[in-house]
Amino acid sequence: MIRDFITALALCHNVTPTFPNPDNKNIVEYQASSPDEIALVKFAESLEMRLLERDQSQIVIQNAAKDSETYDILADFPFSSDSKRMGIIMRHRATGRLLFYLKGADTVMKDKVKPNQRVVIDESCDNLSNEGLRTLVISMKLLTEEWY
Asked: Could you report the per-residue pLDDT of 43-67, keeping only the tens digit for each?
């Protein structure tokens, strides 16, 4: 479950890595519409899930075992202030698994999860907001070919 969470941080975003020195891929700069998105990608990187490439059709990450994983982007649902969430549907090339990642504000996300999980989201987010912290709910669903 923790690996899935970190993978979600590494994949569910609009961040593009750039390399100011093409000869040194260790120096990376991130471009995104929000500094929050960059912060989440950098956090995933600190947990050894590194964003290597991203374009309109695919995302490549390096996992903690230093293996590259390629995900084809099948659908992208950008964040909007109306929906208060963003999502992405991807296919993991190595396994063929279809994954739907969705993240957003707790107020909209609690309606997107199973009913028995709503109480956990409400309690956790309330506790964090009482401490003055912002919250973000992140989810993942394995999809079948038929559903997709």
From this structure: 999 999 999 999 999 999 999 999 9
